[in-house]
Amino acid sequence: MREIILLNVTGEDHSGLVASLSDVLTQHGVNILDIGQAVIHDHFSLGMLIEVPDTTDSTPVIKELQSEIDRLGLTANFTAIDDAQYEEWVNLQGKPRYIVTMLGRKLTAHNISRVSKVVANHHLNIDKINRLSGRFSLQDGNQHRRTCVEFSLRGEVANVAQLREDLLEITTDEEVDIAFQEDDLYRRNRRLIVFDMDSTLIQVEVIDELAKAAGIGDQVIAITESAMRGEIDFQESFRRRMGLLKGLDESVLKGIAETLPITEGAARLISTLKSLGYTVGILSGGFTYFAEHLQKKLGIDFIRANRLDIEDGQLTGEVKGVIVDGTKKAEFLQEMADEMGISMQQTIAVGDGANDLPMLALAGLGVAFHAKPVVRENAQHAISTLGLDGVLYLLGVRDREVSH
């Protein structure tokens, strides 16, 4: 009679373990129904679900396996699985699958505990946990180290909105970011990423820097912050700020452009995605003068932003053409996807302000980056603890797969 056995093997890792064990099984014509292996800090853990054919007696199989396991210095556990248990396991393969990504500068047991409890409360099973971040030394004081683990989940979610809310609550109390996504084909097959510029690709709001140069920094910054929080309409705030800049000398622009502080991880993210064949764009309510500077520096493919109106070497307080606001950003994103012949599910949008919400909602993956609370709460995903290259983790990219 056919027998199904779950074999769990643990011990110190070294090369050839799987080969040695599978050689024993080969001699008895055993089939492998499922297999999984992990190595953590040189400690080996292997699980095999094996089928012993009805023409074979399982007793010598187990005896020889145990002998080989002892020789290798490992520990094993054998569990008999009946047909009903096996069929129940087979039927679970039709369940939806999800990915929860947790990232930060460090991860604690408490972080893992809280996420695991939320997952369990929503009746999801954790199939696997993987570390995506590289190893880091505890001897140095690297303030930019990254840690990330990815939970593979299985099951039916009765209330996705509540699940997201429960995970978001963790991020308000802990210094971690948590993303929840369907584990589908689109997650691994995106082709277009667009960024807001100010306070996303760069660490400043250019219009505020222009205002400081004009001696009206406090006035303009107050309007900027109100708009970013969504308290006033972007176009209204934009016109107010531009009006205050009337008469600013054009020579100021060059100095600001050459000293723009690039956001941590921006170059690493963009170069990695470019190597994977992504098209990269800037969709900004800022200005083309500065976006073009970043385009050259970071290898960005296209930009859509506001063009400053300059007469006799001075800003007129106006822009040429239609103001690029949140609605226009979303329209540009749709246009680019249409031109590329891709689904919106294959797009990523990253931004920090209220005027980014339309494109964040439209994109297949919308990421609020170091954003105001109103933006974080309304975006699909948020990154507040790491640099822009944290987006790579949301795509399932491991540190070891990135060259720099």
CATH class of the largest domain: Alpha Beta
Give helix % range: 25-40%
CATH fold node name of the largest domain: Rossmann fold
Strand arrangement, major sheet: 12-11-10-9-13-14-15
Number of helices: 15
Q: On the 0-100 scale, what is the average pLDDT?
A: 93
Large-scale geometry: elongated
Low-confidence stretches: none
Total number of strands = 15
Order of helices and strands: EHEEHEHEHEEHEEHHHHHEHEEHEHEHEH
Class from secondary-structure proportions: alpha/beta
Distance between the termini: 55 Å
Strand content: 25-35%
Major β-sheet, in short? 7 strands, mixed
Instruction: Return the CATH architecture of the largest domain.
Output: 3-Layer(aba) Sandwich
- Give me the CATH superfamily of the largest domain: HAD superfamily/HAD-like
Rg, alpha carbons: 27 Å
